[in-house]
Design brief:
This protein has 10 helices and 3 strands. The chain has helices at 2-11, 28-48, 68-72, 96-106, 155-172, 178-190, 197-235, 239-248, 254-271, 275-278; strands at 74-76, 84-86, 92-93. A 3-stranded antiparallel β-sheet has the order 1-2-3. The chain is extended, with a radius of gyration of 29 Å.
Length: 279
């Protein structure tokens, strides 16, 4: 009876405890994507243009970034793929999510008064679903849709975001100042004026088209490698040494090597090839 109870206990599925979610309405993850784009597209170009400070009402001023100071005080543990450390108190967490929870609960005092939620600007930089080139989970396709089909877009939303973009640029890079006028015009063309559903659809199609040659090239490289490997294994008289080296290097398993050897001998017998004739 005791052993039966033990088996039943072992067979009982382990309950999955749902992780505690962040309560702050501003998304830290999306804010990170926007922060990265701001640094690349706005802040660094402004520094190169000789702009050393930001007007008081500029929403993109790093000093107004709601989570900016907290992000600077996070460190990924060296040699670990998941462990993170809070530089405020040196506490270690098993992943970034739980470090974010710690920041939210224990270090909210580091958030600036009237801080700006960068996630509110994700549409301007097209990172609301993550950075385009790093999106791991593509949207679910409906009937008749393909990967090249543009994602849903709302023109009313685009109009509001274009207005937000224009106002933000005016506050951060005033046209009245000569040092910021040229950069203002450039960023307006690149970001604000492209906030249109038709333009977004065209950009999506171009991105999909650009990926196709890369995919075809990768397929050709894999096929070429497979053909070369097959020739070496079937025709070269030291192919056994090649296979042994691959097993010792843990490139392939010993079982795979045996299957390859068997397939090689079968191919030689069926084609009437002698290994010395292939050299």
């Amino acid at each position: 009876a005791a052993s039966a109870n033990t088996v039943m206990a072992a067979a009982k599925p382990k309950e999955v405890v749902p992780r505690t979610e962040l309560s702050h309405p501003c998304s830290r993850t999306i804010s990170r994507h926007v922060r990265k784009q701001l640094e690349k597209e706005i802040i660094k170009p402004a520094q190169k243009a000789g702009i050393t400070g930001w007007p008081p009402l500029c929403p993109w001023d790093p000093a107004r970034d709601l989570f900016g100071d907290q992000e600077k005080n996070k460190s990924k543990k060296r040699g670990s793929t998941t462990m993170w450390t809070s530089l405020y108190d040196q506490k270690v967490f098993k992943n970034e999510h739980y470090l974010d929870l710690h920041m939210e609960r224990k270090h909210a005092d580091k958030e600036p008064v009237n801080g700006v939620c960068l996630a509110d600007y994700c549409e301007i930089f097209d990172v609301c679903q993550g950075e385009a080139k790093f999106r791991k989970s593509p949207r679910k396709l409906e009937n008749g849709e393909t990967a090249a089909t543009p994602p849903p877009c709302n023109n009313e939303t685009m109009i509001k975001e274009r207005q937000r973009c224009t106002e933000s640029l005016a506050k951060c890079l005033p046209l009245a100042e000569e040092s910021s006028r040229k950069l203002h015009a450039k960023l307006s063309r690149h970001f604000c004026q492209t906030l249109d559903c038709r333009i977004r659809a065209e950009q999506h199609r171009e991105q999909h088209t650009e990926m196709m040659p890369v995919i075809v090239l990768l397929i050709l490289v894999v096929l070429a490698g497979f053909v070369f490997f097959s020739i070496v294994v079937c025709c070269v008289d030291y192919s056994d040494d090649v296979l042994q080296f691959m097993v010792e290097s843990k490139i392939i398993s010993s079982g795979t090597a045996k299957q390859v050897t068997k397939a090689r001998e079968t191919a030689r017998l069926s084609t009437g090839l002698d290994r010395t004739k292939c050299i």
